[in-house]
Amino acid sequence: MKPQIQFLQLLIITVLFVFNSTSLSYAKPRDKDRWNKKYDIEIYLFGEKPIPFLVDNIEILRKGKALDVAMGEGRNGVYLATQGYDVTGLDISEKGLEKAHALAAKHNVNIKTKVVDLENIELEANSYDLILCTYFMDRGLYEKFYAALKPGGMVLVETYNIDYLKYRMFNAKWALDTNELLDIFKGMRVLRYQDYDDAREAYSSIIAQKP
Prior knowledge:
Elements: H1 3-20, H2 32-39, H3 52-56, E1 65-69, H4 75-82, E2 86-91, H5 94-106, E3 112-115, E4 128-134, H6 139-142, H7 145-148, E5 149-160, H8 180-184, E6 189-197, E7 202-209
Parallel strand pairs: 1-2, 1-4, 2-3, 4-5
Antiparallel strand pairs: 5-7, 6-7
């Protein structure tokens, strides 16, 4: 690929992300068209590779049935499928999930997906070995994860924290407070936790296990 084309693609991704970064909670039905339009581009808006926190900790995660909440274009859920997980992905955007299936086909794995309104969804109790949710901020939804996990099941959550506002225009409503993930999942055993800040972006990540 020519350098000029690579630069143009990067520029498109940056502009789209910054323009829409005032809200990463995108589960309302009225947001469906907006996210479908965002994902309706040839390249993957957030890339095809999984987040490093997932890859770095894959060996400690419980194997089995995984739920990828706010799956988007599938970069994390597809990676889990390549590691042997039975993956179901939830998202408001049909276009995002179409691209997730295309990515899964590229890696010769299968995933299941469902278009849902995440702000009003009820999760089946004691059903999942792993629940993954990245860059979708909904405190009420996070609190539903505990009941949806099997005993011994795990959550992996990563999203922007309040320090991100130092670097980008961003709605503070969708940013975690200091140590907020630790408080939300305080009834679980914390296996990994990090606050990341590289003077360009800032986010918090947690892996916690249900007793």
